[in-house]
DNA sequence: CCTACCGATCGGTAGG
DNA sequence: CCTACCGATCGGTAGG
């Protein structure tokens, strides 16, 4: 029950710490993730927690990586097999808004919460967050450009502006639900995305994930 | 230089504390507003800071009130004289996005930052934030309904969905600028607002505030 | 408005 | 992975 355990056990412990850290951060931000709190929640000592990461900042970066991977699994993986261009783009919009409406972390989307929390601060967390969201932006912009090239979207659309708008609408689902009880916010966001893309409104049962 | 001063002096000190608190919160969130930090920044003692408010929570609520009033002055006051309905609604969109692109607090829009920080937490700050943003939502919904009733906007638009979308786009300007250097994010947001409202794109020099 | 202080918690380390 | 500990900072109070 006590003392050192195997490397596999250590990896399991590490994963449990990151899951808990992501849950806490989704509610109270990455600032709310304190070593002592994680230790108490997981019934470990503080040194047992921080030993996996070295410093709190490394723990925060690891939690961000973990959340980014979960985002990829929940939003990108269900649609990456779709045809590149408009079809996959609309699939992303559907899985993205569904992801925000039924979040896996208790406080909602980790990436959205952290982006608005950390955008004005300097440091490695800011930079890692910019890198993660930038990668996602380039994926989206790529789909949009493919759809334009294929003639499925209007040629005068601005891909960067569209990426910004899709991102803002998806992120807005979080506070709309938790501050105002807007249970339909994901539907509104998805419709607005379609309007901005200039395509017909989504059908009701488009997503079932 | 020391000891008690007049009631007018006390009010000035109080205002200086709130300004500083709003600046700090716009960068690091309301959690970053600590009594000791404000005291150091303003060259006061901690008891001198907290004496104006009683508790940290009361200080946070006062900072929120202060920021809400500044938002009203910067976004609503410049356009409240316009004709109710579409004209005033479009004026709000312009002053709102301009406000986000040239924020008065160092870290950007206090209301946006705090909404995404505090939406998942319980307590009086959450409730006050919901009340403040709800008031703003009702103002916006009122303008939209007036514009629809006047025939200036399509009758099949959903006012609640539009309010959600306008809010999300305005709030998104903050992280777009600070995380990705999108200096045009305010222009993109304003264009998207017009598209969702179903009105022509804004003219370039619509706002000069 | 100040000094001086309280118990609690912070991130982190030493040593095992 | 633990206990035991470090200096710093937290919100807040007593007393003036």
UniProtKB/TrEMBL annotation, chains A, B:
Keyword DNA-binding carried by entry: yes
Pfam families tied to this protein: TetR_C_13 (PF16925), TetR_N (PF00440)
InterPro entries, A to Z: Homeodomain-like_sf (IPR009057), HTH_TetR (IPR001647), Tet_transcr_reg_TetR-rel_C_sf (IPR036271), TetR_C (IPR011075)
Keywords annotated in UniProt: DNA-binding, Transcription, Transcription regulation
SUPFAM superfamilies reported in the protein's UniProt record: Homeodomain-like (SSF46689), Tetracyclin repressor-like, C-terminal domain (SSF48498)
Domain HTH tetR-type: 11-71
Gene3D superfamilies: Homeodomain-like (1.10.10.60), Tetracycline Repressor, domain 2 (1.10.357.10)
GO MF terms, alphabetically ordered: DNA binding
Keyword Transmembrane helix (UniProt): no
Domain of life: Bacteria
DNA-binding segment(s): 34-53
Protein name (database record): Regulatory protein TetR
Source organism (scientific name): Pseudofrankia inefficax (strain DSM 45817 / CECT 9037 / DDB 130130 / EuI1c) (Frankia inefficax)
């Amino acid at each position: 029950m006590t003392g050192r355990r195997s490397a596999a056990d250590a990896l399991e412990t590490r994963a449990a710490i990151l899951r808990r850290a992501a849950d806490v951060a989704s509610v109270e931000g990455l600032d709310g993730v304190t070593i002592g709190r994680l230790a108490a929640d997981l019934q470990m000592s503080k040194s047992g927690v921080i030993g996996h990461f070295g410093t709190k900042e490394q723990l925060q970066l690891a939690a961000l990586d973990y959340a980014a991977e979960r985002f990829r699994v929940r939003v990108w993986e269900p649609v990456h097999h779709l045809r590149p261009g408009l079809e996959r783009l609309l699939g992303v919009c559907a899985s993205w808004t569904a992801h925000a409406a039924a979040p896996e972390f208790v406080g909602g989307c980790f990436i959205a919460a952290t982006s608005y929390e950390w955008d004005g601060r300097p440091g490695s967390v800011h930079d890692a967050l910019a890198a993660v969201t930038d990668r996602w932006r380039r994926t989206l912009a790529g789909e949009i450009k493919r759809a334009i090239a294929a003639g499925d979207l209007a040629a005068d659309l601005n891909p960067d502006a569209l990426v910004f708008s899709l991102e803002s609408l998806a992120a807005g689902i979080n506070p709309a639900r938790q501050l105002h009880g807007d249970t339909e916010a994901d539907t509104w966001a998805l419709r607005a995305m379609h309007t901005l893309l200039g395509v017909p409104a989504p059908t009701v049962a488009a997503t079932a994930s």
